[in-house]
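Reviewers of the previous submission asked for a worked example of the structure-prediction workflow described in the proposal, so we include one complete record here. The input consisted solely of the amino acid sequence. No template or homolog information was supplied to the procedure at any stage.
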Amino acid sequence: MVKGGMAQVQVSRDLGVNVAAIRRWLACDRPGETLENRTGRGRRSALSRVAKIVIAKLAFKRRHSTRTLAGKLTAKKHLASKSAVQRYLKTSLELKPLDLRKTQDWYRANFAGFWEKGTWPGNSPDMSPIESLWVIVKKKLSKISPATSEKTLFQNVPVAWQSRDSAPAALKALLGPDVRGSPSGLFRVVLNVYESGAGADIGRRHWCVVCMILVVVATTGLISVPLLLRDMARGSPAQRLQLARRILTQVPLVDGHNDFPWNARRFVYNKLQNVNLSMDLRHVRPWNESVWSHTDLIRLRQGHVGAQFWSVYVPCGAQYLDAVQIALEQIDTVKRLVARYPSYTALASSAQDIVQIHGGGRMASLLGVEGGHAIASSLPVLRSLHALGARYLTLTHNCNTPWSEYSEVPSLAQRGLTDIGESVVREMNRLGMVVDLSHASTQTMRDVLAVSRAPAMFSHSSAHALCNISRNVPDVILKQLALQGGIVMISFYNRFLTCGENATLTDVVAHIDHIRRVAGVDHIGLGAGYDGIDLVPDGLADPSTYPLLVAELLSRSGWSETDVKKLVGLNILRVLRKVEEIRDHLSMEEPVSLEALHRIDQHYINNNCTYDLRLQ
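From that input alone, the workflow returned the following structure tokens.
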């Protein structure tokens, strides 16, 4: 949890909105202001203001809202304990959809009535909140079967209803031998004790212990049994492979990086009429003679690839020369490929396009420009590439640009993004392009995560902790990326997996598991890098083998079908939707202006391919 000034910085990174006003509003740092007399239309209640805070906070990252909100709320209005408010808000924010109007109505209906009027469902004026809670418990247990009552109760009884001052004294009995009973038996004990009318109070600490014991006992049966049944249902390797293919028909597998367009330039000079991509190129020269060739439309379909980011690769040697021309030619190649095989693929420019094209049984094709030098330090060129369909830009390749650094720059010499680099990132946010940090130096990664308002991505990288090379992502960056909402799409290049020439499918899973442990299951994806690598893992020779990877994950403990769906496609779809949301939020902003030429690297001015306006 980021606190204090860092919290403001983090929230600013997420959406770029001015949070200073919200912080002042929360902190009541203007003289004479409280939650009750805040300016506005009429005198609004404290809880209607809580609803407004929650609505504002929902626009940012949820993980930053509950603790701060609970602290500010209890500091200004002693409505409940900080921990109770925090737990209640955390549960509510996780369960409710991100719909501002519905959220406001829900909070006013379920929040304000209890705290403003002091009323509680099912109680009389003489009943304490905890006593009325047990009335609800009793009613629930009388209406639903014992087998489901514990789960329903845990999900629906608000934690904030607990009173820290009053509870039936006889609940202490739950801390005795009866704890060894079944969940249903424990609840019967609770009801029997309550109905006996025993009288005094126990402390809040004992009440928390009671709740913890009940949760542990109940979840033992509610979680372990379904997990056991799930593992039994997955069965043999053949059954897991069948399940993997079914999952890939439900959720599009999105591959973050494929270099086939560059191979088309190398092998057939972008003359697509000279190659039939609906054939298996493993039997066609010169493709079958190259260790760099892994892709054709047949193998993509066999692997159930639902969306492919085609790399618009521009070699570093073209920097300051014809880099922009090469980028345009490669974009043209991808578009002609898509037009040539309409029954296999269609061009996509948004997350919704991916879902619709996959739903129609075809593969979505997207464009990702690899190498920031492809824009020639020109924001108008960046905007033009976006207009042609590019949806991410890899800031560097194996060379620096005038405004960013690549991964092999020594750590002590790294300077990260320049001012122009920050302008590039801000303009990408405004356009709705994802910032790709594969190939970037660590300092460039840090600077982007500090500047970008939208989630960033690594289109084809792996875990630095498992293979200590500069092209992989350090754990500290993984943690920052998770806070920012970004994603690492795992590369299948052997030298990124094991730092050697040999690797296996198991090594790929090891990198996936490591990034999951550090960043979380919501921040991993797949970016094999086929056709741009000459060493591939055993078991993952080409895109047709993707179902084998999914089946292997399904055989591992801790990997549910939902987790697998996030990995193969749902995570990158979330990132794309968030980037589009930020784009819409910034739609009224003016395009970032062209920077003065003298601020660009002098090599850019002095080479023979650049006209210097300052000569006029």
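The two ends are 55 Å apart (CA to CA). We consider this example representative of the routine output the project will generate in years two and three.
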